[in-house]
Structures are given as structure tokens and as C-alpha cells.
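Shipment paperwork, digital attachment
Item: protein structure file
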Amino acid sequence: MLKTKYVITASLQIMLLSFFITACSKKDTTPPPDPCLGVNYTIDYFKTESVGGANNGTIAINYPVGDTISYKLNNGTFQASRNFTNLAPGNYILIVKNQNNCTDTITIPIFAYGPKYALVRSVIAGYCGPCHYSGGNTGGKNFDADASIVANWDRIKARAVDNLPSQMPALPNAQLTTVDKQKITDWVNAGHRISD
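Attachment content:
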């Protein structure tokens, strides 16, 4: 009987020893905090569309900027410059990375504008805000979207070029210059499409 008791005790001792070795060698250190937790950027940018079938679109990043920030488009390599040029029409995935390799992304479309439409878009941006551009919706017309400009081509010509029933921009503002009126007329006569 004594021998059996000794075997149980030895077995129990081995189990306890094994438990304590495992327990003491366990690493109870907490992992370092994730440096990217909570990191996100409100990416602000300026872009120009590709005009006339050329690869001449651009993207310039306004925020975030700094020595520790880098940028890349699609599958390109990260670069310190916040400017991208010679872009063809299409959707671009911009990835912003900081010194801790934390990233944020945004998709930026570069549209294909015809040369005449690009000029009209510029005229509208210059003359029609704040009433009909940059969020303005006077008279139920807003020209922030390309589709809205194209859909209202006849009204744009009637008001800004022909001054019917009254001029746009509205008085007391001056009429469009003869050169700017011609830009609208040329676009309308070409077919009043984005591609013209």
C-alpha cells in the first residue's frame, strides 16, 4: 500500500510542478497599444479634370500635409509630394500614410471634359456662385453637378447669353463678357455635352 501512496504523491507532485512552471513562465505583459487606433483623416483635395482627351487631370492634397505624411495613387509607390499630374480620366484611390504606417483612403474621380465644356464649367464657376454654384440653389437651379449643367444648357444660354427673360448674372451685376458668352454659344452649338 505504501508504494501506491508514493506513486500518487509523485504523480501529484509532477502535475503541480508542471503547472507552476507553466504558470510562472507565462508572459502576462500587455501588448503595446495600436498606434493606428483612432487615426483617420478627413482628406481634403483639389482636382482638375482631364480635358480634350489628354491625360492632363491633376490632384493636389490640401490635408493632411507634413513631413511625416506620404501619398500614393492606386498601386503606385508612396511619395512625399502631395501633387499628382498627367492623370487620365478614371477613378483613383488615394492612400495617405503617416510615420506609423497608419493609412486612410479616399476615391477621387477624374472626369473627361471636352475643351468647350471645360470652358463653360469655368465660366459657371466664376459667374454663377453663390446663387447657383457651391451649394447655391436660387430659383431651384444648382450647377455643382455636371449633369445639371448639361440638362439646363438651354436655360444657361437663354439667361447668360441672350439675357431672356432677364440677364444672368442678375442686376446689378454686369453681364458676361462677349468672350464668355461665346464660350457658352460654342459649347451649345457643338452639342452641349460634357464631351464637347
